[in-house]
Amino acid sequence: MRVYFDNAASTKVSPSVIEVMKKTMEEDYANPSARHVMGVEAENYYKEAAQAVSKTLKVNPKEIVFTSGGTESNNMALIGAARAYQRSGRHIISTSIEHPAVYEPLAYLKEEGFEISILPVDSLGHISLEELKNTIRKDTVLISAMLVNNEMGAVEPVDEIAALIKSINPQIIFHVDAIQAYGKYRIYPKKSGIDLLSVSGHKLHAPKGVGFLYVNEKIKIKPVVFGGGQQRGLRSGTLNIPGIAGMGKAASEAYEDFDNKVKKVAEIKDYIISELENTEGVSINSQRGLLSAPHVLSVTVKGIRGEVLLHALEAEGIYVASGSACSSNHPGISGTLKGIGLTDEAAASTIRLSFSEYNTMHEADYFLERLNEMLPVLRRFK
Question: Which of 173, 187, 325, 326 is catalytic?
Answer without folding.
Answer: 326
